[in-house]
Write a structure and sequence with these properties.
Layout: H1 5-17, H2 20-36, H3 40-65, E1 77-80, H4 93-107, H5 109-114, E2 122-126, H6 133-143, E3 148-151, H7 153-156, H8 161-177, E4 181-184, H9 188-191, H10 201-214, E5 221-226, E6 242-245, H11 251-262, H12 275-278, H13 283-299, H14 307-322
Parallel strand pairs: 2-5, 2-6, 3-4, 4-5
Antiparallel strand pairs: 1-3
Length: 327
């Protein structure tokens, strides 16, 4: 095989920087180059090696990222291995650019730390329910080949405030020990503004969280997601490396959400002109409407979702979600 000098240099650089995505991409470019030359056996060998390496690396990362014995952390977090890629997330270009930056910094975190810079690893996601905040955590876990730890707030929050602070310490010790994506969903339950409350343990819990967050390991990503930004304590905002604001999808994004969920079950032409029905619905609500239309079509023995069926599902979702009556 005669890979170009540029390809070899790029391979070495991407390997040295720990950028697995670039390394595999360049290897596949070499494979394609060999295929064009008629060297199909060599091209296939390279592709198979890339596929095997990706699978082995993912398995290896997942194994070493998890504790041998969860112990106390197992009662405070649900551990999953998402399979959701960035191209599946329907979000604004600004949010996707921010996520790419976070992933790039995490992939080259060793190099950044060597020069005295800390990679972005503390994110606050805020916006209406169902707009992709939890999915974003899954995307980061998938793209970085990391396990995702979803913190169980019902287990974390205790009527005995001292216990809650102790549980927070357990979580942040796990963040330092096990590389992963740690999601605090419905974060306002923990990080709400305490200024109007009586002085006491509630304030001390928030202060403990702030201290833990500020000193959290850059090898893991800590994500706080909230539907109610105004409820959060003002002291929180400066502790995060980035704040991502999510909005309800516009007409084009709504179309992409439905198309992504239905795939070949919908004719692309059936999706135009639905803006009045999709307006005000979240990503999650659009997915549910698409699924409702698909199940109805399948049970009727149809091979595709009709325009009428999709309209009915969207109107039903609007009535249930935003209180509109059927026209």
């Amino acid at each position: 095989m005669a890979a170009s000098g540029e390809h070899i240099t790029a391979l070495v650089n991407s390997h040295a920087s720990g950028d697995d995505a670039s390394f595999y991409s360049i290897a596949l470019q070499i494979s394609a180059q060999e295929a064009r030359k008629g060297h199909h056996l060599v091209a296939n060998d390279i592709k198979q090696a890339v596929d095997a390496s990706r699978e082995q690396r993912r398995t290896f990362d997942n194994v070493i990222s998890l504790p041998n014995n969860f112990g106390e952390i197992s009662e405070l977090a649900e551990v999953t291995f998402p399979e959701v890629h960035l191209n599946q997330l329907v979000a604004s270009p600004e949010i996707k650019d921010q996520l790419r930056q976070v992933m790039a910094e995490q992939r080259q975190r060793s190099r950044l730390l060597e020069f005295g810079f800390t990679p972005a690893h503390r994110l606050l996601l805020e916006g209406p329910p169902g707009t992709g905040k939890t999915m974003t955590a899954s995307v980061l876990a998938t793209e970085l080949s990391l396990p995702m730890f979803t913190i169980r707030l019902d287990s974390l929050l205790s009527k005995y405030m001292g216990e809650t602070a102790g549980k927070l310490r357990i979580i942040f010790e796990a963040i330092a020990q096990y590389r992963g994506v740690f999601l605090f969903d419905e974060f306002d339950a923990l990080g709400g503004d305490r200024s109007g409350n009586d002085v006491g343990e509630a304030r001390r819990i928030l202060n403990s969280f702030l201290v833990f967050l500020e000193s959290s390991s850059p090898n893991s990503i800590v994500i706080a997601a909230t539907n109610h930004r105004p409820l959060l304590d003002k002291a929180l905002f400066r502790r995060f490396d980035a704040i991502l604001t999510y909005q309800l999808p516009n007409a084009a994004q709504a179309e992409n959400v439905i198309k992504a969920r239905l795939g070949s079950l919908i004719n692309k032409g059936q999706l135009s002109g639905l803006s009045q029905l999709t307006k005000g619905l979240s990503h999650a609500e659009l997915v549910k409407a698409a699924e409702q239309a698909a199940k109805s079509a399948i049970m009727r023995g149809e091979v595709q979702v009709s325009r009428k069926g999709l309209e009915i599902a969207l109107m039903s979702r609007r009535k249930g979600s935003i209180g509109l009556t059927k026209p």
